[in-house]
Amino acid sequence: MTSDIxxxxxxxxxxxxxxxxxxxxxxxxxxxxxxxxDKTKVSLSESTLRRIWGRVEYKHLPSATxxxxxxxxxxxxxxxxxxxxxxxxxxxxxxxxxxxxPSEKAGISLTYILLIIILVALGAVxxxxxxxxxxxxxxxxxKFSSQRLTNAIPNSVIFNYDAISAPIDSxxxxxxxxxxxxxxxxxxxxxxxxxxxxxxxxxxxLLIGKKVVKEHKLMIPTEGWLGLIxxxxxxxxLNPQDFIQKDMLNLPVAVIQQKNMSMQPGQxx
Length: 269
What we know:
The chain is an alpha+beta fold. The protein has four domains: 2-94, no CATH class; 101-133; 139-220, Immunoglobulin-like, CATH 2.60.40.1930; 227-258, no CATH class. The chain has eight helices and eleven strands. The strands form four sheets. The protein has a four-stranded antiparallel sheet with strand order 4-3-6-7, with no helix packed on it. Strands 1-2-5 form a three-stranded antiparallel sheet, with no helix packed on it. A two-stranded antiparallel ribbon has the order 8-9. The radius of gyration is 24 Å and the shape is flat. The relative contact order is 0.09.
């Protein structure tokens, strides 16, 4: 199965055309996570993708859900479909060449032409549906800014927005690239408060329906070293003495167990 996974991520790499994945930065995996969600509506975290791409040592195989999502992002119906097609391609490469009569070639060409016509028609219909879903939206009519309340974690951030011109009531404030951090707000109001539980560099967004009308960068800092164990929805925070030792940072297993945290990998992979 490992060779099949390598083949799949190689196909995704060719489609993205981002160069050698060994040179990808954290931001690249964040963007890839967003692209996967946009196409499949399934969220794979940055840490999950880094493990699959071999940037973090991890001895377990990905779950069926993760493999299906990656296969769908690459253009296959499912992971099983990808395996079948990959096996079929290898068989066809090793099989003897079959002579095709001119009449058969003409039939195949006609099939491809009809398929292209259908795809173009579907694309045109999709374009008009998307255009109709966001009627009369002019990004210049909207305002969006934010203000941190502290430098500590958790950190409350006040978002100031003006979305009174929205033609629909579906107005959202999204904390970052992750669509799961999207919150419905009242378009007639002008403030919304969100809590950030982890430090980092975020891209906050104001959306009207599915259209991003405003976005800006938001840095959530810490006051010195911060140790935490990821958990949903709120991480477990560590005291400095738990992980800061002389000349090194180290988190003993005993500390994790004291926090009642499972030593098994999460369900997302």
